[in-house]
Amino acid sequence: MIVKKVLGILTLAILLVGPNVYAAEETATSVTTTLEVLETSNSNESMTTNSSSTEASEVSTDTTIEAKEVGEAIKNGIEEQTGIPAAADNKAVNQNVSEIRNELATGQYNISAEQLASYTDEQLEDALQIFTRVNQDFYGMDLGAYVRLLTALYQDRTVNVVAANAALSFDPTSLSLAELKTQVADLQNYLQNLYPANSSFIPIRQLSNDELVAILNFVTPLQEKMLTEEGRFFPGIVAWIARYASEGIPQARGDLAKPVATNTTETTNNSSNQDTSFKETATTKTTDSTKVATGILPKMGDKPMFYLSFVGLLVVIIVAIIFYRRKKK
């Protein structure tokens, strides 16, 4: 009789406690897994954000360097193409004709005493005015380049000194590229008179209006980058035109215009996606934590197993009835 009572009590305990313990173990495992997923999500978010920020920074730097390097390449290309190097800072041309004549007479430049004596001060002055503009159009040049201009003006006569001086009334370096695109005819006249295609000084192939506009469109974002990052646009716009007239008209490159904005957008989208993922995981964690705190430990989904408790209670009642009847007998 005692054995039967003990068995009945053990059966009741197993039915009431066993399922809930099993469900608690599964829920604890689920919560642990969620915590691991949460940590992994946070780690991935941090890595993705850092990677995206680094990428945007690198693109911004590369674009700035690219604009500067293209400008240097233009200058180097003109030097190679014309054989006229940029002057050192201490080699700037003096603006006084008498001092220029004295400097040329030292024999350091490719001009003989006879040739120098053949030039009047007025000729030297006219050449100096043109040469000063050339330095603005390209880059600073020394007296060696000035001698070459004298030869083109008065020896070879490949540049008409009167037409060139008249063309100086138009100054492309004083205009924005947007303004130049609206004055293409004046720019054409300027180039043809100062840098004709047959010049023995600096020749520029005659371009169509469409070709000039294409070059200006291409250079515009590069100029904006240089002015923003370097505070100057170098070399002068005519140097860019001369170089691209020689090596080919460039294709438009929109990636130089707003590269950082594009990558910043991608970074923002990535961050938003990571934030959404984090919020969803955090919600799951909060829900599971609430279930543990309130004692609701379902085995599957959110459906508690009340029927097992009911079966246990029914067994207790049956056992109690059996004990009562036997005791009455």
Automatic annotation (TrEMBL):
Keywords: Cell wall, Membrane, Peptidoglycan-anchor, Secreted, Signal, Transmembrane, Transmembrane helix. Residues 1-23 form the signal peptide. It comes from the Bacteria. Residues 40-62, 262-284 are annotated as: Disordered. InterPro entries: LPXTG_anchor (IPR019931). The chain crosses the membrane at residues 305-324. Residues 297-329 form the Gram-positive cocci surface proteins LPxTG domain. NCBIfam families: LPXTG_anchor. This is Gram-positive cocci surface proteins LPxTG domain-containing protein. It comes from Enterococcus canintestini.
